[in-house]
């Protein structure tokens, strides 16, 4: 079994913000699989599907970004999902908008949602698909304001393409492992 979680913040206030690209990716995957993300468990909205013959939970934690690990750990413990079968999709300001990076494990890289997950799982050994949202143009721009800001009109098609690539990367991780996904999708 796999747990695929997209990180974001709940509520209309955060719709179409850079920080919610993980939620949007889960919504896209669910649409492709004809799955409804409507069930509520462990402070998350989720749906169940099958990807490449493997049962998969599509999860959108509703705990706000900084507490995402609470929900992820509860799912992992309840369903006995090993850390290497937990795939996290998140935004990344260190990548240009639209680029993706797949990693099999690693640090939080300053991302509070990933920090929470690492803390609650007591491990950084989970695969992740990070989607570039770019960085603020000015150094004095408040980072929180930037990631909680909405996508510009020009960014939307670039990020829609990134969501499609992220979906393919998730499927590749499940079918052939994260090394194969890294080779196919990193930097794309």
Can you give a write-up of this model?
With 188 residues, the protein is of the alpha/beta class. It has one domain: Rossmann fold. The protein has six helices and seven strands; from the N terminus they run E-H-E-E-E-H-E-E-H-E-H-H-H. It has helices spanning 21-33, 68-79, 112-121, 143-147, 155-176, 178-185, and strands at residues 2-6, 39-41, 44-51, 54-61, 86-92, 100-103, 128-132. Strands 2-3-4-1-5-7-6 form a seven-stranded mixed beta sheet, sandwiched between helices. Helix 2 (68-79) packs parallel to helix 3 (112-121). The longest helix has 22 residues, at 155-176. The model has no long low-confidence stretch (mean pLDDT 91).
* Share of helical residues: 25-40%
What is the global morphology? globular
Number of helices: 6
Mean pLDDT: 91
CATH class, anyone? Alpha Beta
Strand order in the largest sheet: 2-3-4-1-5-7-6
Largest sheet: 7 strands, mixed
Q: What's the architecture, going by CATH?
A: 3-Layer(aba) Sandwich
Count of β-strands:
7
Specify Rg, calculated over alpha carbons: 15 Å
End-to-end C-alpha gap: 28 Å
Number of domains: 1
CATH topology: Rossmann fold
Low-pLDDT stretches = none
What assembly state would you assign to the polypeptide chains in this entry?
single chain
Notable traits:
globular, 6 helices, 188 residues, alpha/beta
Outline:
With 188 residues, the chain is of the alpha/beta class.
């Amino acid at each position: 079994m796999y747990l695929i979680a997209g990180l974001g913040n709940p509520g209309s206030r955060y719709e179409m913000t850079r920080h919610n690209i993980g939620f949007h990716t889960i919504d896209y995957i669910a649409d492709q699989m004809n799955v409804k993300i409507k069930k509520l468990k462990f402070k998350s909205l989720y749906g169940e599907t099958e990807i490449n013959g493997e049962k998969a939970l599509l999860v959108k934690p509703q705990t706000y970004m900084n507490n995402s690990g609470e929900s992820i750990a509860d799912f992992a413990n309840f369903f006995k999902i090993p850390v290497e079968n937990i795939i996290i999709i998140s935004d990344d300001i260190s990548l240009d908008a639209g680029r993706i990076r797949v990693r099999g494990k690693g640090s939080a890289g300053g991302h509070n949602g990933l920090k929470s997950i690492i803390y609650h799982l007591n491990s950084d050994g989970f695969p992740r698909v990070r989607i570039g949202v770019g960085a603020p143009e000015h150094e004095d721009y408040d980072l929180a304001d930037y990631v909680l800001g909405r996508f510009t009109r020009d960014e939307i098609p670039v990020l829609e393409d990134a969501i499609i690539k992220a979906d393919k990367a998730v499927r590749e991780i499940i079918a052939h492992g994260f090394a194969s996904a890294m080779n196919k999708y990193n930097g794309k």
